[in-house]
Amino acid sequence: MSEVLTLEDQLLADFDGWLDQHYADASSLKAIKKAGAETFKSLGLPQRKSEAYKYTPITKTIEKNFDIETVENASTLTKSDCEAKFYNEEDANHLVFINGIFVDDYSKIVSGSSDLTIRVLDEQSINEHPELKDNLGKVNGSQIDPFAALNLAYFNQGVFIKSAKNADNKNTYIYQFLDASASQAVIFPRVFVYGSTGSRTRVYEKTFFNGDNNTLNISIVESMVEANAEVRFTKLQNYETNSYAVEGIYAHQAKDSRFYTNTFSFEGAVIRNNVYINIDAENCEGHMNGLYQLSGKSHVDNNTSVDHLKPHSYSNELYKGILDDHSRGVFNGKIYVRPDAQKTNAFQSNNNILLSDDATINTKPQLEIWADDVQCSHGCTTGQLDEDAIFYLQARGVNKPQAKALLLNAFANEALNELQNDLMKEEIEEIILNKLK
Prior knowledge:
Blueprint: H1 7-12, H2 15-22, H3 28-43, H4 58-65, H5 79-83, E1 93-98, E2 101-102, E3 116-121, H6 123-128, H7 130-135, H8 146-154, E4 158-163, E5 172-179, E6 185-187, E7 190-195, E8 200-210, E9 215-225, E10 230-238, E11 243-253, E12 258-267, E13 270-279, E14 285-294, E15 299-308, E16 314-323, E17 328-337, E18 345-354, E19 360-369, E20 375-383, H9 387-394, H10 400-413, H11 422-436
Parallel strand pairs: 1-5, 4-7, 5-8, 6-9, 7-9, 8-10, 9-11, 10-12, 11-13, 12-14, 13-15, 14-16, 15-17, 16-18, 17-19, 18-20
Antiparallel strand pairs: 1-2, 3-4
């Protein structure tokens, strides 16, 4: 009788051979990737009783919908196929990933290296950039999630983005193309953003799909934000009904720095977003904004954490959800204020509107405070549209569907306040309005 392999065993079945094929024995990156595999083995995939994945049984979902042994990740996409999806912004960087691999030849980079370094995340980059070698796979939070560890083990040709000191950089767009035309696709894109002292860096990510097979996107973004630097990272997730994703954003902040993350989720079979910010110095700002507007049977789980380790810092978190049909949303937000983090201001809010009796939201805002001189608050609301507000608009000549759309649009747009990109903001506003029709 043949042995039945667990999903963990299936995922790592060919790892050693794959590693030997792609990396030399003396490779620094090979050692890092081996460590990722070992961490994944020790953590194991989340099971039914895992508190962190309580409302999102991701392991069972993958077992049910993917045959790991048949995955090929082959693609027929051409450079022109990818360029046709670029945002219409000439004076910007456009970076292409196909099935998790950064394709330099398909990308368009206009920033000079004196302002912004954009490189394949490979052995050469690690050897030339000590800050990358010292921090890859180690940014706070990325060591405690098995999918982050699995990505570290398997990513191949990620991208390294490093700003120069005091540079105010051009916009950088990342296009993730998932091509499942030949077979199911399981991909591991990785991005490392390094904000050097005094710089400003803005990165925007969007995902596209090709083919009818199931896709699983296990993606990781790590960011180190140095003193007085600002990094903004925005994700637009408008997935297909056969698309699954576990995505992580992990940031570590130095003194006087600012980090902003925006996550906009509209569709997808199952999407899990892990966002962790580690505030490890004084006078920092950490911002998390999110919107999930779901219909059908879409399932989106936002798991966030802000860890205040030092005094005189500020964090603000706002997530909003609109759920229709049989969709399900999950929000689990944690704020930690450590004993040394006096004078911390930390705020967290999760607001939801259910448009259907069959839609579900599970929300759990959390505060853990070990300091006594702080201002912190957290809360959540879940309800339906205000009938009095609808009646008020109807009394002034607005029909009921339009009244509902106006109220929902106003509710959703608050989550877009920190998005400083008109092209992406217009696209998101259009998606919101189309879903409200």
